[in-house]
Amino acid sequence: MRLNIQKRTARKNKAVVLIGPTAVGKTAMTEALFSHSAEIINADSVQVYRGLDIGSAKPDQKLRELIPHHLVDIRDPWEQYTAGDFARDAAALIPEIESRGKIPLITGGTGYYIRQLVYGPSSAPPADERIRNEVRDEVARNGKEWAYSYLKEIDPVSYERIEANDLYRITRAIEVYRASGCPLSSFPVSSEPDDAFVLICLVRDKEELKKRIRLRVGQMFEAGFYEEIRKLFRMGADSSWPAMHAIGYREFIEASESGEASLETIKEEIIRSTEKYAKRQMTFFRSFSSCRFFHPDDTDGIASYLALKGVCTDDFRP
User: Fold this and answer.
1) Beta-bridge mates of residue 208
2) 28 by DSSP, 3-state: which?
3) pLDDT tens across 230-252, in order?
4) For residue 318, is pLDDT > 70?
5) pTM value?
6) Which CATH architecture has domain 5-121+189-316?
7) Taking the domain 129-186, which CATH number applies?
8) H-state helical runs in the chain
């Protein structure tokens, strides 16, 4: 029998951070525990973009009516939205949500977003416009494959953390190295999180997660993902759009540039890329101090842990 822990725990102002790799089950957990008690701050870097719905597993209208969502559909796909933008916007939303008597629930899988919000920005030097332009020109001449290979040479730690198609972060890491002579990964981020956040990460067995990823990608195509891609192409989408660097979308961009891939080939490539990304996500999340890890089926354990932290979920409402 679950104890009503909230009756003996003082209510504190806490924002909940619910993270986990793609397809782990964050949405189902959100519905199970927070349908009546929270408002969601989206921490998925693809769901911020309008028109990228199926490939980003964007919450459907029913869920968005049940639980208010913030930072979804706030940018056009050709616009940049950085971790700094997210941290600023999320920090402004948290007190607004608390003023309505709801839990701010930050949920998604973009580790850079979460890290900057919870731990603060890196101590790396700010951007130098002259160096930035030089690096951009060099990447334009030599290609993104060269840039990623060069990153491996100058900063192997960042190379392991950054995706091959994340040109924004690749060029930023090169800029920092050129400006300081030191790799981006050598500049510390605070190891102590803001104590206003309670961090929970959902985890599954590797093979179990792989099955869910394959199922998720199959459902995307059944739901009309190819039509979504065609609509984006008609809007003028190409590799210059930041949104099109996301897994699922970039495979179609690459196929359009090479003209050699079938839908089935693209589908399998998306599955492989997603599996690799999920592995990187977990490596990133395990570096977060004070983060507690739970299987998504352990709703009792998660609710009890949150109650001990002073957070009243649906099961622990007064």
Assistant:
1) none
2) helix
3) 999 999 999 889 999 999 999 99
4) no
5) 0.81
6) 3-Layer(aba) Sandwich (3.40)
7) 1.10.20.140
8) 26-34, 61-66, 83-99, 111-119, 129-142, 144-154, 156-161, 167-180, 206-222, 225-234, 250-258, 263-285, 299-308
